[in-house]
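Budget justification, computational time. The allocation requested in the original proposal was used primarily to generate structure tokens for proteins on the priority list. As evidence of use, we reproduce two of the resulting records. The first is shown immediately below.
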Amino acid sequence: MAVLKDKKTRQNLLKKGFVNSDSHHHFYEFWHNGTLIAKTRTSHNGQDIDDYLIKSMSQQCKVDKDFFKAFAKCTKSQNDYINELIKNNIITSSK
């Protein structure tokens, strides 16, 4: 069963272009060319992110679970994320 560290995941999302919008939860939004593409959240409790939540967050970020785990662990970059969104027909290439 996969587990991600909450604090490290939040830090890595911010490094990769997500913006934080705090409320009851930590909300993270990814904008591309002025359009909201993805929105996900983590809890304020700081607990590890379990397999179930990883799957939910990956769906909210519009990528598969394995890509999201690599993205959250910083082995995938913001450019990798954008290319994955293009590959999945979520956004179009800006070229």
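The second record produced under the same allocation is shown here.
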Amino acid sequence: MQKSSLAILICLLALSTAAIASTDDARARQQQKLDDACKQAREVKIAPLREAVIKDCIDTGKTEEDCRKFNQDYGEKMGNRAALFMDLPECVKAFKHNQSNRSTR
């Protein structure tokens, strides 16, 4: 192979690698955007439920600080308990986008 052909091949490989990295970065940014939208939508639904649980905790005689600390992750996945409201449209969209990334590789 001539030196010029080898140089062209190396340049094409470098450009191809850069294009793949750029696509991966764009996908990662889009996934983060979708994940953030899911998190915000879930928080709107979970916040009032968390506050009710905290109020019930306080009513048992515990301090508000202790109740808030204990319930700060209310609604999230814990042990075998699934996270709440993962079926919201924003979360389904984020999940599908994440799965589509796996099926293309």
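A brief technical remark on that second record: The mean pLDDT is 87.
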